[in-house]
Amino acid sequence: MNIAGVPAxxxxxxxxxxxxxxxxxxxxxxxxxxxxxxxxxxxxxxxxVHRRYLFHNALNPFKFPEIAALETEVVQxxxxxxxxxxxxxxxxxxxxxxxxxxSMLVNRERANARGIERPQIVAPYSAHPAYAKAxxxxxxxxxxxxxxxxxxxxxxxxxxLVGPSTAVLVASAFSYPHGxxxxxxxxxxxxxxxxxxxxxxxxxxxxxxxxxxxxxxxVPAWDFRVEGVTEISxxxxxxxxxxxxxxxxxxxxxxxxxxxxxxxxxxxxxxxxSPAIMGAxxxxxxxxxxxxxxxxxxxxxxEIMRDLMATVVKIRxxxxxxxxxxxxxxPIGPVLALHSSTIDLxxxxxxxxxxxxxxxxxxxxxxxxxxxxxxxxxxxDELLADFADAVxxxxxxxxxxxxxx
Length: 405
Ligand SMILES: *Cc1c(COP(=O)(O)O)cnc(C)c1O
Hints:
By secondary structure, the chain is α/β, with parallel strands linked by helices. It has 2 domains: 24-39 and 297-389, Aspartate Aminotransferase, domain 1 (Alpha-Beta Complex); 46-293, Type I PLP-dependent aspartate aminotransferase-like (Major domain) (Aspartate Aminotransferase, domain 2). It has 12 helices and 13 strands. The strands form 3 sheets. A 7-stranded mixed beta sheet has the order 1-7-6-5-4-2-3, with helices on both faces. Strands 10-11-13-12 form a 4-stranded antiparallel beta sheet. Helix 5 (130-138) links the parallel strand 2 (120-124) and strand 3 (141-145). The two termini are 27 Å apart. The site of pyridoxal-5'-phosphate (PLP) has 12 residues, from helix 4.
């Protein structure tokens, strides 16, 4: 640290300069890392909410009962969206990873209570790495179930992997790598038959699928209406459009809180309780999630989804019209995984990078990955024109790897 401080204007100027070297989060040239709504009214609301809650701490519900109530209302609104039974419950967390960690912890505890010493998570090969992280953190084993020809988990193969130590099965609704729905009903039935948990990972789909259903689209059953689904994770900081730090984990069974909530009173400062991993917790993500839901309502979210799907269809058609470019599987929402057996899409990705698009690479099948957000509507034509040009004019791939960190 410098000995003397510097004026605030200088601090901000330096930050602006440093920020300018990185992708603009509003320019709709990023995919997956941010989910811009393209809505100035929403962003203005989020700024105001953040200003009001910047310094609060959601750790102590006795001191800040209204923050606790806001969290409860976000959990209830999300629960209603995903049809959780009245007896169910859950909490907000900092993100999809923490939601998944909490679910795996609860499933581990349930398995431990049944006498299973080292419980297993059986998850599709396409499941998010957070399940591997949970296994690593909580002394569980991750067993990877293969995918079928449509990039969905192969439930017959999954059934062969279920053994006496299996604690929980995972299905994605929908998957991050390919944007396809796993056969949730079949996975949940297998779990119910085996007397174990079924976590549906709707981190990305949780605020997409209910609105697709409201739009009259064909959405296979995937939420708590499916018997056997015990947990669902849904990220507000993805297609709920709020800034990072907001997710919801929901449990069907009322025993969740005894396993998820940590209580401790053997230290000098009295009873300490915490529902998830974080101790001190920012209140702004809670208040912002609440504000977004109150402001948009079901109709507001549904309208945004209608426009987003129009953009998805436009970009999908445009890409499919390019010779050699294929869409992987049958994506249900805003994820398009691209593959080609004639074009080196990594080389196409290099050209797109040079033009300021930040397309992610997929390893399997080798290709590119587009997580489309509402703000991509304003760049769809430019994206397609650049992509067509890159398909026509690229050299060898520079070997940029598929990676997130
Ligand atoms: C984003 C995502 C996660 C992890 O969420 P984070 O908020 O990044 O921790 C888990 N599963 C799926 C399907 C996701 O898309």
